[in-house]
Amino acid sequence: MKSIQTNIVITGVRSKIDGSLGITLGTPELTPEEKAEFMRLQGINLIGLFTPLDEPEAPKYVVDADIDTKTPSQRLRNTLFVLWKQTGEKGDFETFYNSNMEKFIDLVKSKLD
Question: Phi and psi dihedrals of 85, rounded to 5?
């Protein structure tokens, strides 16, 4: 796999529920081969360095945090919490969580021999 260096423009920044950011980047026009190189890196943890072109010697600000360090069960619990919020927070979250987990468990059990 190759590293890619190109000019980019940050065209969008979104705050996410877990405290992270979603960043949309724009590139110059790319050839099909260049596009393929970007596609190969999709979904892979990368190191990003954003340096303004008008300040190539700008001091670095290093963010030292890992991406997606949550377990699948933590991610499911967080997703259920967002669903509970979006559906009007009926009852307490623990009851909502336990009820939905039982539904998931029953669904998996129904697929067993």
Answer: -65, -45
Instruction: Return the structure tokens found at 108.
Output: 């998996």
Strand partners of residue 13: 23
Per DSSP, the residues of 45-64 read --------TT-TTPPP----
* Per-residue confidence band for 57, with pLDDT thresholds at 50, 70 and 90: confident
Kindly give the residue spans of alpha helices, DSSP state H, lying in 1-113: 32-41, 72-86, 93-110
Across 50-63, b (16+ Cβ under 10 Å) vs e yields: eeeeeeeeeeeeee
Q: Indicate the pTM of the whole model.
A: 0.50
Among residues 43, 37, 42, 13, the alpha carbon closest in space to that of 25 is found at 13
